[in-house]
Specification:
Elements (H helix, E strand, L loop, with lengths): L1 E5 L13 H21 L9 E9 L8 H7 L1 H11 L8 E9 L4 E7 L1
Parallel strand pairs: 2-3
Antiparallel strand pairs: 1-4, 2-4
Helix pairs in contact: 1-3
Length: 114
């Protein structure tokens, strides 16, 4: 199993009122951070069926998101993980799980099991 943690604050894109270029810049950053963090582990990309768990970590005073906003907030991270796996994010060989938890600070935990 591969486990990494990203230091970033995710935003629910469904409710965010921001300029399209700010949204695109944030999504690019999140996607690249996930990809390069996994690449930096030098772990071998699992073959066959893969289970990926994305955990949104909220700061102690942070609020939990409902399930559709949780998926939207982690979309760019999911794309970065799929880039690292070398497949599309809708590939049937990959099962995605979304979780929320409180943490000492904002972040995203990624677990990949192959």
């Amino acid at each position: 199993m591969i486990e990494v943690q990203l230091r970033m604050r995710t935003v629910s894109t469904l409710n965010a009122r921001e300029h399209w270029s700010a949204r695109a810049k944030r999504a690019k950053f999140e996607r690249q951070l996930a990809y390069f963090t996994l690449l930096g582990t030098r772990a071998k990309v699992p073959a066959g069926h893969v289970r990926v768990a994305l955990t949104r970590l909220a700061a102690p005073r942070g609020r939990a998101l409902d399930d559709d906003n949780l998926r939207g907030a982690l979309k760019a991270v999911r794309d970065g993980v799929a880039d690292w796996l070398g497949c599309a994010d809708n590939d049937p060989r990959v099962t995605w799980h979304y979780v929320q938890a409180k943490g000492p600070q904002w972040g995203v935990a990624i677990q990949v099991e192959g």
